[in-house]
Amino acid sequence: MKLEDFDYDLPQGLIAQLPARSRTASRLLHLDGVTGALRDLTFTDVVDLIAPEDVVVLNDTRVIKARLTGRKKSGGKLELLVERVLASNEALVQMRVSRPPREGTTIAIADAFDAAVLERRGPFFRLRFESCDDVFALLERHGAVPLPPYIEHHADGADEARYQTVYAREPGAVAAPTAGLHFDRELLGALHARGSAIVYVTLHVGAGTFQPVREHTIAKHEMHSEWYVVPQQTVDAIDAAKARGGRVVAVGTTTLRALETAGAVRMHAGVGETNLFIVPGYTFNVVDRLITNFHLPRSTLLMLVSAFGGIHNIRRAYQHAINNRYRFYSYGDAMLIERGEAE
Hints:
Elements: E1 27-32, E2 38-42, H1 46-49, E3 55-59, E4 61-63, E5 67-72, E6 77-87, E7 90-97, E8 106-109, E9 113-121, E10 124-129, H2 135-142, H3 157-162, E11 170-173, H4 185-194, E12 197-203, E13 226-230, H5 232-243, E14 248-251, H6 253-262, E15 270-274, E16 289-293, H7 300-309, H8 311-323, E17 334-338
Parallel strand pairs: 1-17, 3-12, 3-14, 4-11, 14-16
Antiparallel strand pairs: 1-2, 5-6, 5-8, 6-7, 7-10, 8-9, 9-10, 12-13, 13-15, 16-17
């Protein structure tokens, strides 16, 4: 398949710059991947759509303040985006700078501390933060929330609250698992009262999620690797749901990728790295239903949902969403997709 197979034209005005007035106030487009049927709903309708015998799986990663500014000793400005915390005083970062610093040099960050450039790893740099014994605490003091590049305002206090799920607890992500932004505690409580099991995985979304696909032939694209954990409690809940005829509802593409990685042969608990690249033709082994936002043209996430709901169904659903002025991307509206037949 070619990159242009996953292209579409989106009016600039449909890119959501701010979240809805409340988490559950978003719209919800329901797509049946088998029949192709579409329904326009509100997000609170998920309580009726998810059955008591289903299991809902959420990604409990927490967004860190991963964006930093600084300068080289020569005075040149730079911007850092932390990809991954490696140790108590080390991190892997992307660096936006006119001329990359050499290994062994020191850079000044946030006019508050220095970092040594230890090595370059492809598009990333490994840094050691001087006089630091807790990178997460340092980022909390000096960093900023790393909003996606298509959101045009600088992150403020409102973004610190709304670009984070209400159930986030494991720090490490540099982008939010945005499907989860639509859930508040009342809606989660309603699902629990209905009898649906609610369990968690952790997948720390990396800076690579912002990177475009540059290969014309998508089979040549290499996914960035992300750290994940699937607990035994989650595996047990999925097995129990399947045994009683329930379905596995993944909230977000990150949750889906973690589950499909852990269930590639047989569903099992574990910790690891995943660079699973899902495109049409992929056979899903675990997830039956997917709650997700609307994704960028030519992105790996659009390829994933096309594999899940059917490429033709997704094209038609996106055009329907555009015609009906749904809000797109991280702060936008949502879809609930029933898995379709493999294409």
